[in-house]
Amino acid sequence: MKLLVTGASSLIGRHTVAALQGAGHQVTAFQRSPSGLVATELLGALGSPEMAAACRGQDAVVHLAAKVGVVGTWDEFYDTNVGGTEALLAAAQDAGVQRFVHVSSPSVAHTGTALVGASATPAAPEAVSGHYSRSKAIAEQIALQSSAQDMAVVAIRPHLVWGPGDTQLIGRIVDRARRGRLALVGSGSALMDTTYVTNAADALVAAVDHCPNLGGQAFVVSNGEPRTVQELFQRITDAAGITWRPRRVPGTLASAGGTAAEKVWARTGRTDDPPITSFLAEQLATAHWFEQQSTQQALRWKPLVSLAQGFQQLQLWFANQR
Amino acid sequence: MPSIDGVGRSWHILDNQEPDPDLTLLCVHGNPSWSYLFRQLLRDAPAKVRVVAVDQLDMGFSERTGQVRRLATRIEDLCALTDHMGIAGPVVTVAHDWGGPVSLGWVLQHLEQCRGVVLMNTAVHQPAGSPAPSLIRLVRSRPMLQGVTVSTTTFIRGALEMSRPRLGADVKAGFLAPYNQASRRHAIREFVADIPLSAEHPSAETLDAVAAGLRLLSDHPVLLLWGSADPIFSDLYLHDLEARMPHANVHRYAKAGHFVSEDADTTAATLAWVKTLPTREQVEPTERPRPVLTSSLEVPSTLADIQQAPADRIAITEMEDPSLSATFGELTNLVERTAAGLASAGVQPGDRVAVLVPPGIDLAATLYGCWRAGAVAVLVDAGLGPKGMSQAVKAASPAYIVGIPKALAAAKTLRWPGQRIGATALSSKQRSLLGATTDLPTLQRTTDPAPPVPTIGDPAAVVFTSGATGPSKGVCYSHGQLMAQRDALRSLYNIGDHDRLVAAFAPFALYGPALGITSVVPDMDVAAPATLTAAALGRAVQVADATLVFASPAALANVVATADTLTDANRAAFAKVRLLLSAGAPVRPALLESAAALFPNATAATPYGMTECLPVASITLDEIVSSAGGPGVCVGQPVEGVEVAIDPLDDTGALHGQLVAQPHVAGEVVVRAAHARTGYDRLWHTSHEASQPTGWHRSGDVGQLDSAGNLWIEGRLRDIIVGADGVVTPVRLEHGCEQCPEVGLAAVVGVGPVSNQVCVAVVEAKPGVSKPRLAPTELADSVRAAAGHEFAAVFVVPALPVDRRHNSKIDRARVQAWAEQALAGGRLTKL
Question: Is A9 among the domain residues?
Fold first, then answer.
C-alpha cells in the first residue's frame, strides 16, 4: 500500500513510519521541516497546496500532525487541529484515498472525573476543557462524520505514549526529577494507562489494515497495563538512573497552581510549556485507564512490548546517552 | 368507568397491555401513594405477564369524586373496574399498605380467579401491643388531621422520609406528583380516617370480614414481603398475618422501611415467586392435587434420644469451679422433665424457643428438652454481639426465651420478643426484675407427662451464626436433618463408645449427648473463643480423659500462644487424644500444625462446610501439607452422603445452573446432603435463590474438584475478579503473595468494571507499617513474581480487615472498596 503520514517527525510518527515500512508499505512523510527519516519526504503545512499534492496517488493517510501542549491561542489550536484536519480530509477524498487513520486523544471525550476501565465514548467538545482537547474533539467529530464508503475514517486515541527519546512525558519527568522538583499530585495512587511507542505504532498499522471495516469508529489504545502514577515515576526515574523519593503535593494546590501558571504563561507570551498545567495536574491525580478488549478485538492487535520490557528499553537508551 | 357512583368515574391505570397474558398482576397501592409504586414491576415483568397498577379513586391521577370512599366502597370499585376491563384470566394481587385490605376484599370475591396474593407492609387487624393506633389517633386528632394530610404535604413527605436508604429527589417528586394541591389531597385524609380503631367504626365490619376471610386462602399461595424498619406496620403486623396464613412464604427485609419496594428489591422477589406458581395448564384440571405428607416424614424423631448410653456414664462435666457433672441417666430424666415443664408452661409443638444458655448441663437440658417437646430451638451465636443477637432474635421472633439472667436482662432491655423463662432458678425479685414468668427448675417439677415425640419432618432449630459480613441469616433445620448431621459426624470421625469429647466449639459441643459420649466443656467464655487458654484446655482434657478435642481456629491460636503454661500432666493427657478437630472457620495450615504439635498422637483434621450444611468435606493436616500449590485451599474429599457439584463460571463471571462433577472446572460449589438446611427463616427469596436447582444448596464459595475427587476452595463468589481474560479467583494469588518473605497476610481484589477488572494486591508487610501506602517497587516486583501475576498495584497496610469472631476470614469487599477509591486517585485512608 502507498501511505502518507503527517507529523512524521514526532516520536510516535517516526515509529509509525518504521512499522509501516516493516509491514511492506511505501511511506511518504509529510511535515513542515526535514525529519531525517528514511522515507520519501515532502515538506509543507497542513492546508497548503503541497499537502494536496502529497495526497495524490496514496491508498491511505495516517494523520498525526497536530498542535499539542497548552501554550497558544484558541485560534492557533483551531487552525491546526480542526482546519488542518478538515483540509486533509478533503484533499484525501479528492485524491481518491480509501483509508484515513486519524490520530486523536482520549482527552477528547473526558472531563476531569476518574476513568476506571473506561470505554471510548464519543468526542464531546462542549464538555472537555483546554484548547488542545477541545480542538482535537471537534477534529475527531469531523473526521468520523466524513467516513464513507469510498474513504473509511478511523480514529485512534493512544493514551500517554512514551519510549526512548520521548521528550514530552519521559523528558519532562526526568528533567524535573534531576532538578529535584518531581512531585506526585495527590496520593500518587491513581491508576494510569500508558502506551509504549512501538505498540501505539503497531496499533496505527493495524488501523490502516482494518480501516474499511471500522469506518466511523474511535478506539482508545494503551498497553492495557495500568499502573499507579507513583510506580510509573519510580520506573522512569530508575531507568534514567536518578534516585527519586516520592514527594507529594495536594491535588487542589497542584490544580490551582497549574491554572495560575497557564495564565502567567499566556500573559507573558512564553512559548514553552509551563511546569505544570491544570490539565496535567488533573490527569495525574485521577485514574485514567481504559477497557482494551474491544480495541484489541476490533484492530486484531495486541501490544507486543510489555511495560516491563519497555522500561528495560528505556534504561538501555538512557545508559547509551551517558 | 360508567358503572361507578351512577355517574361514571375516570381511573388512572398503569398497564403494560401484555396481550393474551398467562397471568395478570393486579397492583393496589396504599396511602399516601399511587401506581408509581409499582413502576419497577411494570418495567421488569416478563413476557406473558400483564401488570395492571391502579390509582384508587380520589388518589394518584384518578378522578376526585368528592365522596367519602370507605373500604367497602373501594373493594366494590376495584371489582367493578376489573369487570369493566375484562380481566378474566388468572390474577395475582400485589398490594401495599391499605391497598392490602382492598386487594384482599377483591380476592375474596374472586377466589377461583386468584392464583396468588402478594402483600407488603399491610394489616387486616390491629394486633395487641402495636403503637400504631395511638399514632393514627394522633394524626386523626382534630387539630392535626387537616393540616398534616390535606393543607400540607407533611403526611406524604413524612412517609417518604422514612425510606432507607433515602429516596432520590426524582423519586420523591414522583410520589408527590399527583398531590401537588390541597384539593387533590382530600383522600389522604379520608384514608387515615377510614382506619377502624374501634368496633363502631363504619369500616370495622368490612375489615373484620376481610380478616376472617383469610382462612379461605389456605389453598392460595401467599407471599408476604416485609420492611421491618416500618414504625407503623412493624413485625407485629407481619406475625399477625403469618398466624392467619401459616402457609405464607415470607421475606422479611430487616433494614427496609414502610415503602419496602423502594428500599429493597421486592420486584425480583415478586417475579421469582410468581414463576414458582403452578402454570395455567397445571392448574386447569378440575382436581387440584393436594400435598400428601409422605409417611417417611412421620417417623418419630430420635434427636432427643440420649438414653441409649449407659445410665451411669458421665454425660457432661462443666469445668467451672467447682465442676458440675450429670450422668446420662440424670440427663435423660432432666430432658423428659424439661419437655414436660415447657409444655406445662404453654409451649406448643412448633413454637419457637430461643435458647440463650452457655454450653453445659443447663444448655443440654434446655435444648434436648425443646427437641423432645417438639419446640423449635432458636440458637443465636453469642459471637454476634448484642446488636447482631438483637437482630437475630427479632427476626426469629421466638414465643419464648429460655436464658441465663444476663441473657434475660438483655432480652428485656433490648425488647426481644418472647415470654422470658429463667434457665436457672430465679428468686421472685429476679423474676420481676428480668420480666421472667417462671424458670426451668420450677417447670421441671411438673407432674405432667412429657408431650408426644415429634417426627423427623418437624422443624427443630433456627440457627444464627456469625457471618463474615452482613446480618446473620436464620438457618432452619428439621429433626431429620439434625439427626443426619449427628450421624454424619459420628461416621466421619468414627465416634463411638470409647470416645470422650472436649468441645470448645459450640455447635459440635451440642452433639455430645446425642452421640452418647461424655462431653467436657472447658472453662472459657464461649462468646470469645480466643479466651481458651492452654491450661484450661489441659485441665478439661485431663478430667475427661479425652480422645477428641474440637475447637475453633481462634481458640487454637490462643492455646498455641499460651502453651508454655501446660503442665506435664496436661501434656500427658494431650498425648492420649486421637483426634484434634479445628472447626468453625478456615484454619491456616501453620496454626493447625502448631496446635497438632501439642497432641503428638492425634490426627489433626478440619471439616469444610457452612452453617447450612456441615460437614461437606474433611481433610487431615497431612493431606493439607501435601496438597500445597493447587488452585486454592484443599478441603479434602466430600464426606459420605454429601454430593458436591460445580456450577461453572463462564468468562464473564456468570453462572448458568448446569451442574457438573468433572474435575478442573471452576465454579460455585453446590452441595446436597440429608443434613443440609431446610431454608432460611423469613427470607423466601434468599432461600429460593440459594436452592437452585431444587434440593441443592448454593454455598457461595468458588472452587473446583481435582482428578482425585478432592474439593478446592478458591474464594467467595462475590470476591471473584472478572478481567478481560476471564475470571480470576483470589485465594491462589493470595497464597502466592504470602510466599514472599516480606509479606504476612495478603488480599487480592479486583478494581474496575466487571469484565475489565484488574487485580490489586493488598498485603500486610513484615516488618509492619504504620499507615497504608503503595509498596516500594522492589516489594511490588517480588509480590508479583511470587504470585505469578502482574498486579496493577501492590499496597502495604498495617492490618487487613478480618472477621472479629474467627480472625481469619478477610473482608475482601471492604478491601476492594478501599482499593477502588485509592486507585481512582483518592486518599490513602485507613483501611
Answer: yes
